Amino acid sequence: MTAQQLADRLADVLAPVLGPVAVEDLRALTGGASRVTWAFDAVIGSEARRSLILRTGPLEELYASMELEAHAQRVAGKSGAPVPNVLIADNSPAALGNPYLICDLIEGETVVRRIERQLDDAGRARLLSQCAQALGAIHRADPGTGTLSADDQLSACRAQLDALPDTTAPFEWALRKLAANRPAPAPIQLVHGDFRMGNLMVSGAGDLAAVLDWELVHLGDGVEDLAWFCLRAWRFGAPPERAAGGLGDVDSLLTAYAQATGIQVDPGRFDWWLLLGTLRWGIICRYQAQRHLSGQTRSVELATIGRRVSETEWDLLRLLDGVRP
Questions:
Q1: Are residues 122 and 100 in the same domain?
Q2: What is the residue range of the signal peptide feature (predicted)?
C-alpha cells in the first residue's frame, strides 16, 4: 500500500484508542532484519499532537508475536524497566497488511557510534549501571500466564542449525561442549533475548531512556541477557576491557546487577551463556544469510549479516580455548 493508504488505515486503527485522529509526517525509519519501524504524528483535534512509533512485520516462528512483544513490555514496565508505552498491538494482518505494534516515541539515540561520542568514562560507567538495573527489573517482572516461549535455548540452537543446509566445525564443537557442561536449572524469568547496544535508547544526557526491540522475548535464565550484552559483536569495536556493551568490564556489569537484584551470578554460568550466546548469534547470521541466498528475502542487509558467520567461528574457538574474546 502507499504511504497515504497506510496513514489512513493507521487513523482507523488508532480511533478506538485515541478517538478521531489525523496521521501526519509518516516516515520509515528502518527496514531491519525482522521488523520495519515507522514514525508519525497522531493529531488529535485541532492542536494536540502525539509522536508515535509503528512496528510491523510478518509472523515468523523465530520471533515473538506483536501481541507478546506488547505484553512483555507492559509487564517489564510495571517492574520498573524503562520501556515505551504501548498503545495497541495486533497479530492480525487485516488492518495494516502485517501484524503491528504502536507505541509512544521515546526521544534519544540508538546508533552506538553517536552514543559513544557523547560519553566519557564516568558516563559509560553510569550507563552500564543503568543497564544492569534495567535487566534486574526485566528479570523480576511477572510474565503472567501468557504464551511466551520457554523453549530450551540449547535445543533451539541445535534445531535451528539442523534446519539450515550446512553447519561448521566450530558450531558443532560448541554444541558438544555446551551439552556436556550444562548448568543446573535456574528459576524461570522474563528474558529480553536481545538486550544490547543498538537496541537501547540513550538520552541526550547519556542516560538509558528505553529498552527497545522485544521480538526475541521469552522465558528462561536471566543470565542469558547478561551474557548476550557482552558478546564481542555488541561492543562495536570497543577494547576487551569494555566487553560489557562497550561500556565497561564484565565484572562491573555483574557487580551492578548484584547490587540491583541481590543475585550473585556464578562466573561459570555466565561463561556457559556467553558461549551459547556467541553460537546463537552465529546461527542467526547463517539463518539471515540463507533468507537472502534462497531468494526468500533478497536483502543486502541480510547478506551482510551472513558474512559475519566467520567472526563468530573465531570467537567460538577462543571461548572453547578458555579466552573471552
A1: no
A2: none
